[in-house]
Amino acid sequence: MKFGIVFFPTVGPADKSARQYFDEALRLVDLAEELGFDHVKMVEHYFFPYGGYSPDPVTFLAAAAGRTKRVRLGTSATIPAFQHPVKLAGKLAMLDNISGGRVDAAFGRAFLPDEFKAFGIPIDESKDRFVEGVQAIKRLWSEEDVVFEGRFHQFGPVTLLPRPVQQPHPPVFVTTARSAESCAEAGRAGHHLQSVPNVMATEELQNRLGIYRAEWAASGRSPGTEQIHFSYPCVVAEDGEEARGKGRYDDERNTAAIRDAVASWADTRSDAYPGYEKLVEATKNSHFEQKLEQKKLLVGSPEQVGAQLEQIAEWFGDDITISLGVHSGHLSFEDAATSMRLMAERVIPKLKAGRA
Q1: In this predicted structure, what is the pLDDT of residue 200?
Q2: Where, by residue number, does the polypeptide cross the bilayer (predicted)?
Q3: How many structural domains comprise the chain?
Q4: How far is Cα 17 from Cα 38, in angstroms, rounded to an integer?
Q5: Alpha carbon of 10 to those of 19, 52, 234: distances in Å?
Q6: Closest CA to 303 of 231, 356, 216, 239
Q7: Domain span at residue 233?
Q8: Predicted TM-score of the model (pTM)
Q9: Alpha-carbon distance 170 to 78, whole Å?
Q10: Residue 34, class by beta-carbon neighbours within 10 Å (0-12 exposed, 13-18 middle, 19+ buried)?
Q11: What are the phi and psi torsion angles at 299 (to 5°)?
């Protein structure tokens, strides 16, 4: 198991200024580098406290690149539907050069109706735009004199500069939340997988991983070479009850943020997002204790979180990578730093020793 951190701000100006949030986040990047974490990631969202402080993860990751030497830098994820592929490919290639070849490029479809409306993109086109965008970006990274004739974009001949440091291109991840078919398509295409266990039952996620791994192997790729990243909110403290109290508060604020962001699904329907109209009701039935019991959160003392991770490894395999959501912005910088130090010094070494 590898471990990194992911930033998913769920605060707005009434809670904390963006300047303060990013100052704290970049100090935590320094700590991730110091403590030996594998990666740092940042999401892409707009307008709402639910991720809205991060409309461009590449900007944040460029700042992170300038103060680190080792840790990998990941989008979690960036949205091809909202940018021209030449622009997005160029930005990520530039980041790969600035960082010395440390970029992990995760792409997602997006799912908030208000974001599509603001960009003037029909939400029903999201999948087709995603597939076309990723295809175009991979070609721009790995080929010269690219001529592209897609449904949404036509260009060429184009030779992208700068060329990525990583050849033929940075690792490509697909971020999927619910769709089994998206997992299958990712495996067939040779894309790595990024997901959030919080949004589905354990059995559903196990099924999707089985599909993904089977398609990866069936496409002729060596089993075990795929990368699977899961994101978990994480609060660790010496005292388990203290961690639970802070974890409960953080989870309640995060749930309130997503509830506001998905509100427009109450009167939005799309064949591209079957069942998403149920999201509003799902946020009303989200309970901290239930999620903790189901191992959808990593909250507790070092010993408790270690036990939670042992169970997660039993369910999904000990070759997965865990992205720790340590700083949504509702808890203090010190709380996030404590979680990271306890993970690095008390939890991760015991997990590795137990599986040696």
Answers
A1: 86
A2: none
A3: 1
A4: 28
A5: 14, 7, 14
A6: 239
A7: 2-354
A8: 0.95
A9: 14
A10: middle
A11: -140, 130
